[in-house]
Amino acid sequence: MKYYGLNELREKYLKFFEKKNHLRLKSFSLVPKNDKSLLLINAGMAPLKPYFTGQEKPPRKRITTCQKCIRTGDIENVGKTARHGTFFEMLGNFSFGDYFKKEAISWAWEFVTKVLEMPKDKLYVTVYKDDEEAAQIWNEQEQVPKDRIFYMGKEDNFWEVGTTGPCGPCSEIYYDRGEEYGCGSPECKIGCDCDRYLEFWNLVFTQFDKNEDGSYTPLKFPNIDTGMGLERLAALMQGVHTLFDVDTIKAIRDKVCELSGVEYYEKEKNDISIRVITDHIRSVVFLAADGVRSSNEGRGYVMRRLIRRAIRHGKMLGINGLFLEPLINVVVETSKSEYNELEEKYDYIVKSLLVEEQNFNQTIEQGLNILEGYIEKLLQNDQKILDGKSCFKLYDTYGFPLELTLEILSEKGLSADEKEFDEEMQKQRKRARDAHGETNYMGADQTIFDKLDTEITTEFNGYVSYEIETEIEFITSERAILEIANEGENLFLITKKTPFYAESGGQAGDKGIIITSTGEAQVHNTVKISGGRVVHYVTITTGYIEPKQMANMKVDKLVRLSTGRNHSATHLLQEALKEVLGTHIEQAGSSVNQDRLRFDYTHFEPLTKEQIDQVENRVNQKILEGLEIEVSEMPIDEAKSIGATALFGEKYSDIVRVVNIGGYSIELCGGTHMSNTAQIGLFKLLSETGISSGVRRIEGLTGMAAINYYKDMENRLEEITTLVKSNKSEVFKKVKNLIETIKKLESENQSLKAQINNASIDNIISTAKDINGTKILVTQMDNKEINELKEIGDTFKDKLNLCIIVIASICNGKVNLVATATNNLLDKGINCSSIIKEVAKIVDGKGGGRPNIAQATGKDITNVQKALDIASEVIEKSLR
User: Fold this and answer.
1) CB-based contacts of 647: which residues, under 8 Å, 6+ apart?
2) The pTM is what?
């Protein structure tokens, strides 16, 4: 067969189906939208589920994609075999009620035998055991001999997800790789577990709807959903054994070998590590490009686990220090032709992954220290087996591999309870599965809006109008479609047209009023729902409203303008952050409404006071320059060519809306804005904080909200001026002098306290007992916190040399206890931790510590003297 590179195969497939009148869509983000059933996109059809269910209308009835996917169900097996991988690309052609089996089979066979020129004598097909229609098409239409058509059961050739929903039989195409890949059994044939017969294309004929009782109802408009793994196809066409030998993936593999100085195919242990790193770096680069950030939950945890596993295997190969960046570069270079976001987000991808790599290097050291502590306890207690829970804590909290734990333990003649470790692992997996819960096919809760006619959409006129006349299409509650809305009711209205901006892109929905001939409604919020419809959340304030009435829709202009000021300022803020901090800055979220703006961005350390001032000043400078804000629509490629910024993981149509602020900031944005930056008035940066690993948040004000903020500050300054009896020009100096005076008085107060304490201490020291040259001091000093007692104890030790001290204090309704001893007493059997535990019991308390110092707190203030008596007895007994 002719050799084709992976990128070339992808392009051949997509162009082939474009010629068959399919709309070619770019890959959707790995992060699912409105699908609770998925953590990450794991199949080509997953992002298209709303089209299959009829919940949304597809842009065309025929679609083709190459979808990036991640499957993490068997991460532990990746590397151990050359079959497994977490990241892959899925080629697919889809029909939504258009063509069906005849066309799907015909085009698949044409692509395989004519475009790729696979030899027909190497190809086999399978069909579902009851699908004679598909078998007949293969045989009669495509001339596939009957002895090359295999009937398979439901487990192999019937596709369904969950207990209900769309489903149907499928047909698969296999390639015979030759006897050298087989198991040698005379029974070896299609369906054998060996590597000879490789399934590479699955055609799913979605023709049924599965009911709750297990029965199947034929769909009125059956669909086609096909999937072909690009890497698997490339391995076939390139005549290589595994996906790790495919050209683009081999380039990554070779870089791993170069960095480690290790050859592939020389030692199986090394090969495993090479495969792990090669696969995992692909996954994390694409995850980062889609805005996923490392964390301890959800998809962020998947990313963290993949990064840490790759780093650990790097260390197993002998790679010291940081090594991910050169691998990131190879992934980007080999994939950027189709996934240009990799190149566009390169700085951010590198920064985010390197921060995680640096953090994990520190975590490994923590894990080693904790393991050493576990080993010490085992040896002290004459035990040989470390419990599985401790092993799992090392693994789960510190990313410490069990294999490394076992290796270190064996060096000390110890082992681990691997069975208990496995049990803890299963518990974690169950928690993860349970977190997803039971979902329907769509992975999203059904709402009343899903029952509305999908053909009806809402036309938005709000960019040019604040007020329009239109017809009310639907009125609904949360559970039902209504024929009337009465005064006092809170309901949802859907209209043919609307000037109300629906909440999206971080911008709050518009507010306002809706008036008909019979009633009036107050609009509290406006939101988008599936199918391009806009819902107005309203309260009927007077009269009643009915469907099909004409309505006057009037947006609250003041609210819209205040929100627009904050939105335009947010665009300026993002550009200012890039100028001050660097090009790795990416928007990680935003929220703008009439009151304030909030902007989340990718950065890995707090801003300095100087940086905050620089950012705020740059935004205000652009406001004062009075830059024109121009909004236009253009092809997405043109928008990118002029440098327009896009959001992480966002799916854009071919024509996009571009907001250009005087050439300073150019973003793809569907929100509402000012027409000139001067209309923003003023920007005040209120706060800058961290909200998660690698993500920071800025909150700010514009317009009258910013002016009111400064007025409030001015009023507070007036109050302070009055309190300190000064004027505005002198108030800073006056307050500074007052603070210095207070510090001086506090210092004098502390000095007097110290003199009093020293006198008291000398008196207390005189009460110490002497047993064989060791001083025992047991005393009560009330109104002292634990830290104060420790300091006093140190003073006693300095004066008494060879001594043990127990001090009790009734403070804020509880008993504080401290026991401390000079180190030269520890060899004589003195253990402050044991003493404090005995004493604490008397006052209904608990405590502990080290042999030379320990502390406790108790609830029973009536037994303090008894506790001190017990302390004396325990100490004297220990010394004698």
Assistant:
1) 505, 587, 668
2) 0.69
